[in-house]
Amino acid sequence: MIIVLRDNVTEEQIENLKKHLNKYGFEICESLGVQKRIIGAIGAKPDFDTRKIKILDGVAEVHRITEPFTLTSRNHQKENTVIKIKDVEIGTDQLTLIAGPCSVENEEQIFKLAEVVAISGAKILRGGAFKPRSSPYSFQGLGEEGLKMMRKAADKFGLLMITEVLEVGQIDLVGSYTDIFQVGARNMQNFSLIKELGKTNKPVMLKRGISATIEDWLMSAEYLLANGNKNVMLCERGIRSFDKYTKHNFDLSAIPIVHRKSHLPVIADPSHAAGFRDYVPAMARAAVAAGADGLMIEIHHDPEKALSDGPQALLPAIYMQLIEELRIIAGAVGKKL
Ligand code: PEP
Ligand code: MN
After folding, report:
1. Are the beta carbons of 181 and 203 closer than 8 angstroms?
2. For domain 2-63, which CATH number applies: 3.40.50.300, 3.30.70.580, 3.30.70.1140, 1.10.20.10?
3. pTM across the whole model
4. Which site in 18, 37, 124, 231 is 20 to 30 Å from 104, CA atoms measured?
């Protein structure tokens, strides 16, 4: 931690600051420049609240130099995390494709789309059975019936499945059907949920919260790792911004930043970021170019009739064409698809 002192700091204030630093167990390293007086405090615990120093008289600024996440950090683990589920590996140079509808709607729909997913070469079928909807009047998902249909469809076409778990009380039920738990953007900081998912060994895809900083997101991943689950992947799905032309602002830069800061795989979700199907292919191509470890894309054979997120769903033919384009981009950045 670096502490910059105010220009008019008094000797008494400095003594008081040092007393506090000693009390909190820091080693002190002083630098008395002509312009600025700076104190280095070495040995910050990951959970140290820098505001305890910021509020002291004579202190102008406090900068943390170590990051608050540890197990999630690249410093803790140099090599990339690779998640293995049956014959699928996530986090290698083989891109992971996840596709499917926003919600499981009925058996015919999920079987039709699972077939498209399998033909496209994707290995993981997505679909929500418990839906986190902004409005209580919107379709909330088919619940366990949806999980059953999705499991059958995934098995028929040799796919893995990923679906959202909304609350602690659903972990056992959802876990008995799915291969990967999805934690949605709205639940990224549902600490009781992520703590419990951390105690399972099933892979978890943690979506970035709608207003979460990258640090908030990595701290939530830390909850999963700290509770024992190493099979964690992250998903950038866009963050809230002020523009009206997209649903969210796709934070492309989060992909290389997370790769630098963490060893966890990053999946990109251009569908929820863009919110409109016209922009999904461009954002998907950009995500692969930016080094994403995989993509999650929503598709639907009849988007007009979709019970959720129809406007952002790609028609199967457009999705197939996109895969071909992605293959070229993947090759250009040393990945395979
Ligand atoms: C979803 O993937 O269906 C979903 C609800 O996404 P998000 O949590 O990112 O909004
Ligand atoms: Mn959706």
Report:
1. yes
2. 3.30.70.1140
3. 0.94
4. 231
